[in-house]
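Issue: ligand-bound run for NAP - logging full I/O for the record.

Environment: standard queue, default settings, no custom constraints.

Inputs:
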Amino acid sequence: MEIAVESGVRPMEMGVGMGKNQTLICAPIMADTVDQMVELMHKAKFKGADIVEVRLDHLKSLDHRPDIEVLIRQCPLPTLFTYRPTWEGGEYNGDEESRFEALQLAMELGADHIDIELKAAHEFMNFTRGNKPEKCKIIVSSHNYEYTPSVEDLGNLVARIQAAGADIVKFATTALDITDVARVFQITVHSQFVDRQVPIIAMVMGERGLMSRILCPKFGGYLTFGTLEEGKVSAPGQPTIDELISLYNFRSIDTDTKVFGIIGKPVSHSKSPKLYNRAFKEDGINGVFVHLLVDDVNKFFDTYSSPDFSGFSCTIPHKEAALARCDEVDPVAKSIGAVNCLIRRLDGKLFGCNTDYVGAISSIEIGLQGSQNGATHTGSPLAGKLFVVIGAGGAGKALAYGAKEKGARVVIANRSYDRARDLAELVGGKALTLAELSNFQPETGMILANTTSIGMQPNIEETPISKEALRNYELVFDAIYTPKITRLLREAQEAGSKIVTGVEMFIGQAYEQYERFTGLPAPKQLFRDIMADY
Ligand code: NAP
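Outputs:
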C-alpha cells in the first residue's frame, strides 16, 4: 500500500519505529548533596534517560574521591561529569587545579564522559598529560549565551574544539530567532553525514531554539538534554524527558522524519503537538510536530524551505502574514483573509487553507443534528437558518464565511460597528451594534456564534448577550475554549438551547489539518480522547 498525499508524506515510506535512533537523552542532575543526586539518577533512569550529566558545580560541598566514587558506583546509568565554572555559566568559582583534579578523578574512577570547556581544554590536557582511560570520552564544550554565530564561524569553532583533543564536540548557542537553529543543523548534518567527523552535541538555547533539542536525531546530534521536571533546567529551553519521549516521540525520530509544527507567538500553550504526535504514532507516520516560536513568517519560510518541513499550523498573530506568503491559497481562506494550515508541496510551493471555519461550522452542524455526521446528503442543517455572529475579527470572519457557504442568512454584531458593516457587506448579510443584539428577535430557531473574547479567562463572569435574549436561539456556539463552558454557554443551556464549545472547534479544525498533513483520515476518536480532560 502506498498512499500519495498532498504534503508528499507517504506513510509506508516513512517506516516509523524502524528502530531506536542513536541519539542519547541526557538528564542533567543538579542537587545540593550527593545523596540527592543519587536519588535523581534513579529517577532519570525510571523516566527513560540514557545517561546523566552529573553537575558537580551544583553540590554544596565536594569531597573529591569518596563523593565521586559514590556518584559513579551508585549511578544506574552511564555518566557525564561536568564541573562548570562561573565564567562559562556554571556554579563553580574555586581554583582550576582542584576542578581539574575532580574531573581527572572522575575519569579514573570510571566516568563514561567528562566535559571540559574549550577555554580550559589546553590547560586540562596538559594537567592530565594525556592520561585517560580508554572508556572515557572527553567532551570539549563551548557556550555562547548571547547569539548564534554564522555557519563559517561555527565551522571554525568545531575545528578548534576538535583540535583541542575532543572525542566529542559540544557547542551551545543562543537563539535570537528560530532561523538561527538552521545554521546549527547545517553544521551537524555536514559534520556527521558528509565529513563523518567526531560526534557533535549542538544545542540552541532559549524557546526559539527548542527545535534543536527535539530534532537532533534527524540532523545528526549525539545527545540531547531532557530535564526531570519542568523548569528545572541546566540551560534555557530544555524540554523534560517526558516531553521528549511521550509528547515528541523522540525515540522514533530519524533522518527521514518529516517535520510539522505550529507557528505562532506565543505558541508554547498550544495543544496541537499533543494531538498530532499521538496520531502520527498510532498511524505509523514518520513525522514529528513541534512548537515553533516564530517572529517573522517570511524569514521562517525562507529558511525552512525544504520539503522535510512539510506542514504547519498557524496561530496568532501570523494568520494574515502566512496567507500573503503562500504560493497558492484556498479560495475560502482568501475570502476570509487568513490561513491556519500550510502545506509544503513536493514542488516546494506553499499551499494555505483555513480549517478554522470548517472546524467551527461542522461542529455546529453536528450540534444541530445531534450526531457526529454533521451535514447529510440532504444538505447542511444551516441552510436557510438565521446565523448571528458576534465579532468581526479572524474567527468572526471564518464563521461568517462558513455560514454563508452553507446557505445560512448571516448577521454580524460587533463592538466596532464599522467592522460589522464591512464583514456583513462581504457576506451579503446584515450588521448590528452589540446594543441592538438583545432586541434582535426576528424569528425562532436562530444560531448564535460568539467569536469575541468576552467571557474568556480570566473574565469568566462576562457574557456578550443577556440570558433573556437567548430564548429564540436553537443553538449557541462559543469560540472561546478557556473555559470550556463559558457563562454564555451555561446560560444558553439553562435557556433550553443546544450548545457547542470552542473545544469542538479546536478538534474540528485539527481533523482537516491532519488529513492535509498526512493524506490519512483523522483519528477523530483519538483527538476527542486527548482533549476529553481538557
Ligand atoms: P480577533 O481577530 O482579535 O477579534 C476579536 C473580536 O472580539 C473583534 O470582533 C473585537 O471587536 C471583539 N472584542 C474583543 N474584545 C471585546 C470586548 N471587550 N467587547 C466587545 N467585543 C470585543 O480575535 P480572533 O482570532 O477572532 O479570536 C477571537 C476569539 O476566538 C478568541 O477568544 C480566540 O481564543 C477564539 N478562537 C478559538 C478557536 C478555536 O479553535 N476554538 C480558533 C480561533 C479563535 P472589535 O472589532 O470592536 O475590536
